[in-house]
Amino acid sequence: MEPYRVLLADDEEEIRAGISRKIDWSSLGFALVGEAENGAEALELAEQLRPDVVLTDIKMPFMDGIELCRRLKQSLPASKLVVFSGFDDFEYARQAVGMNVFEYILKPISAPELSGVLERLKAQLDEQRMERCNIEALRSRYEESLPLLRELFYTRLLDGQLSPRLIKERAAEYEIELPEGTWAVALVQVDCLRESGKVERDELLLLSVRAFLQEHFAMDGCDVRSVLYNDAVALLAHLDERQRIYPLMEELGRLCKLADSYLGVSLRVGLGLPCFGPQALHSSAEQARSALDYRVLMDTDNVIYIGDLESDRSAWLSLEEEDQRALAAAVKLGSEGQVEQVIGGLMERVRESRLSLPQCHLFFLEIVTCLIKLARSGGAEVEEVFGSDFNGLVSITDFRSLEELERWLDGCCLKLRELLGRRRTDSAWRLVESAKDYIDRSYSDSGLSVETLCSHLHLSPTYFSTLFKRETGMSFTAYVTNVRMEQAARLLRDTEDKTYLIAEKTGYTDPNYFSYVFRRRFGVTPSKYRSGEGG
Questions:
Q1: Taking the mean position of all CA atoms in its chain, how far away is CA 492?
Q2: In this predicted structure, what is the pLDDT of residue 43?
Q3: Lesser CB count within 10 Å: N end or C end of the chain?
Q4: pLDDT of 120-137, one tens digit each?
Q5: Is 304 helix (H, G, I), strand (E, B) or coil?
Q6: Angstrom distance (rounded) from CA 390 to CA 379
Q7: Phi-psi category of 507—alpha, beta or left, where left has phi over 0 and alpha has psi -120 to 50?
Q8: What is the pLDDT of residue 1?
Q9: How far apart are CA 323 and CA 382, in angstroms?
């Protein structure tokens, strides 16, 4: 057996020679491989020779033994340290013990004493050597850590952090079979506990769901393995053919129903597109995660397949001007029932559209933006409407269902309605708002006048004109002209309608007069405005 290597450091040559000569190194199982006359030289030699044992004096030039021990514990933490000194100093001993020094010996050093220390050192070193050489012990430790290594491998695989070469190497090392062919990833989340109705995704519950899926999954032509992945159980399915993706959906749906009966949990599954080879599993996992985001739009579907979604990207859902007027009228002047009716109608359009999640998200943001504009125009703080932590980054995926999203929008609208109501301290403000709403709906009528409006509001034109000027800062005619010009500019930007048609749509029977008013308002003719020379 190879002897253990010893480095001796002492600034007194006689002591080094005496120790070297009086100790029977080989019979004790050691070999003196180097000597140093100061700590700096000993540190340099230790880094070269990498001794198993370092015998060092405390008091040496350039670097004392305590500092040497401190350095060696960093660079050679496995080396055993034996410190000796001619000074019976408790502080030195305390520092040596604090650095886990094996032995502290007072000078003069006797050969029997040092030999006894070396014998004890050898026993400890032999034990450590045997432990390192024990193949079965190492294998046992590896086997114990193998499940954790496999979990980590699957997580990195689904995250796309492994190259094809590493996938093959690690799979072989961890005894995992990952054949080529068609694969698909399903992510299974606990949607809620049946009794409490709460969402729970702690590790113990996910482990139970994982064990349940492993036990009850049964599908011909499909080999599946499961792994905990973030807040879900990932199922990696190896299919004998690509068309088996729909039978896989049926099996996952069956398991969801079974879990509801057996475990009392509601599961939601996102299924990615089939891919070829294990190196593409991360893309299927990303698609499965995207499919889960659709849960807000698909309240009744336990299994959501990304391949059934986002098929028609040309379709669109937009909050039209009429929708904005209806929402504004309900919030400003309507009842709670009218507010809920408008929001309910908008959400129903989302349900019926079956559009992609990004398109539905944009529609949702349009509604939120409309409410923000209403709040600001009415002098209400946005935080009062949406909450103190609102930063504008709300997403449709923050909600578990369309019902939850609808309740949130209802709450915001009713809060805004309450805030705006507080600001209407007299009937004058309400009348002016009603007049504005009437103008917004009737500006295309060339016969719109203060008399027709006052007939609708049951007011005298004189009183109304004074009231309107006081509340808005402009006359009725100027306000109507301003609304008509803004709508004309929008039509010029967004449509290909001829100028005379836009004049008619904004309440002008004479196109020439329309052009005159438009030029006075924007400084350019309608045609130049459309070409980009104005606005």
A1: 43
A2: 92
A3: N
A4: 999 999 888 887 766 565
A5: strand
A6: 17
A7: left
A8: 75
A9: 21
